[in-house]
Amino acid sequence: MSSVAEALKELHRLHVKIGGLKDQLARGPRQIAVGEKRVATLQEELERARESLKRARILADEKQLQLKTREDRIVDLQGKLNTAASNREYQTLKEQIEADRQANAVLTDEILELLERIDRMAEDVERAEQRVKEAEKQLGQTRDRVAEISVELKEQLEETMRELAGVEVRLPEELRREYERVVRA
Question: How far apart are CA 183 and CA 171, in angstroms?
């Protein structure tokens, strides 16, 4: 009976070891999935940052075009100023020129603020690109590590399964059927 007790004790130890090895094997793909999700999230953040930068650049271009158009209008109004037929027309043109100059000053300030924001956004894009590269590098390292460990774990699992089969043979026939029923459950 002592050899049966030792066999059962050994079977229990081997089943616990097999469970641990299977858990470790299952952990690898989960680690890879977490890394892939992180890379995907960072890539989405990068794309959003790039889109924001693109929209800001388009807005800056539109405002610069608007400024150029107003400057051209001022030049045109100054040309009309010299050909004004009456004092009233002259004064109206002067007021329009002054209003456009003030609007241009405000627009210039807006453009400068926008260009500063674009510079910060470009830096944000660079940092986001760096985070994506780092996450991809870490993912590659995780994949390599998991592949390496998986080979070792599979070998250990196969060896443990062979040990288990060797110990199971030592069980008496009537006890083996009960054991197999419990193991399947």
Answer: 14
Question: How many other β-carbons are positioned within 10 Å of the β-carbon of residue 154?
Answer: 12
User: What spatial distance separates the first Cα and last Cα of the chain, rounded to whole Å?
Assistant: 25
Residue 71 belongs to some domain of the structure? no
Q: Are 118 and 39 in contact (CB under 8 A)?
A: no
Amino acid, res. 35: G
Burial 155-176 (b: 16+ CB within 10 A, else e): ebbeebeebbeebbeebeeeee
Verdict on whether the full-model pTM lies above 0.70: yes
CATH number of the domain encompassing residue 27: 1.10.287
Please list, in sequence order, all residues whose beta carbon lies within 8 angstroms of the beta carbon of residue 7, skipping any fewer than 6 positions away: 167, 170, 171
Q: How far apart are CA 57 and CA 43, in angstroms?
A: 21
Query: In this predicted model, what pLDDT tens digit does every residue of 147-171 receive, in sequence order?
Result: 999 999 999 999 999 998 888 888 8
d(C-alpha 71, C-alpha 79), whole Å: 13
Structure tokens at 34: 């977490």
Task: Please state, in angstroms and rounded to a whole number, the distance separating the CA atoms of residues 154 and 149.
Answer: 8
- Encoded tokens for 102: 């003030």
Domain coverage including residue 134: 2-58+101-184
Number of compact structural domains in the chain: 1
